[in-house]
């Protein structure tokens, strides 16, 4: 196992991360995207420009048709984006806009010519481009931007601020692998954009020695001595090295990557174009994000009076816009108050409705007499059960019957159903009484006789008379122990006799009489 880090090492690591984070947030960041339909070639040009702006750009930024410029502005703040590079295409030309966030200005260019990275690379015999070149930002070079003119100074300032600044005293030369060149032509007013990769090689030695320094062994089959390789360096292709001159030879202040690049020694700086190329022409400069006053226009010039008139018209439009905004805020506040008042009234109505419903459930029906039950049907069932069985019903026997609060001193037996009146003595007579007694009455015309009336519901559940229960189930003779296979429940009496001793004869006799009637 490796040794654990000490406290000082952890503290130094945290400080380094903090410094790197602060440095990352202070450098400019950019979005490169398009507006509208641009086509395949312009889309590839956008990807190439994202490659140029690496690593401080959104390389995989996706744009949808419904996105508007305000969407990108809203996302730029949290992400720390400072510049927009927007491409668009019309019927006659390709246009490019450079915008500084959040309040502008915006520079509009016309792209006169452009070449993609694949076109530049395919035109070269040997190209130099690898991934390590894009881990650091490029070095920006401005040429011929010292011409007098407000628009020239503003344009050069915009180009400089698109890339991170370099401190000459602290810069590490090994981090500079690319450079971006902007060249301004005062006669044609065109800007040439180029993108190069940097390579530093030592000078003062033959090409054969350079081959050996690079661990590449040349073909020495035609040499008679090794000294010919060091002195002449013949039999080497001219494409392996470019001729060096005074314009590209310098003395290195630091050790640079590559064999032979030592500090305080002369080395040659060589540029290899990696693309893309663009030829730009400035059209106009506007305040804000393409919605402000026009500060400069290449083809349209206006007098002082026209400028003042435009400013007055712009001011009137801003005042009108501010008035509409205030009116809209007032309307929104009014609608909120109306919704709150309507909600309050609705809640009051719902509470009042619930309270009235509760009062109606507690108040007695005015159509009924005093002391009469509200739910007549449930009381009828309970009273009928009392008359038929002679006992009080259980609480859960009539679950749908709503219990009503009774006044003190009253009982449920006092309430009778006003709908169904039965003749007295029709039900509840004990068996064995004389049918000619006082409680027996003749049936009226149109009424069913006692024998034909259906038995009331619930009689089989609570009726406890032995004779009726035996008649209902067909007598005790049917409940013989032959059906039960358990030996403990078999009757010990001989066949033909009942297993029940109590009142067996009477039940048998009653069963025969009922059977004889049938």
UniProtKB/TrEMBL annotation:
It comes from the Eukaryota. Residues 319-360, 427-450, 465-489 have a biased composition (Basic and acidic residues). One of its GO terms (molecular function) is rRNA binding. Pfam families: Brix. InterPro entries: Brix, PPAN-like. GO terms for cellular component: nucleolus; preribosome, large subunit precursor. Residues 319-518 are annotated as: Disordered. Residues 28-291 form the Brix domain. Residues 451-464, 490-518 have a biased composition (Basic residues). One of its GO terms (biological process) is rRNA processing. PROSITE patterns: BRIX (PS50833). It is found in: Nucleus, Nucleolus. This is Brix domain-containing protein.
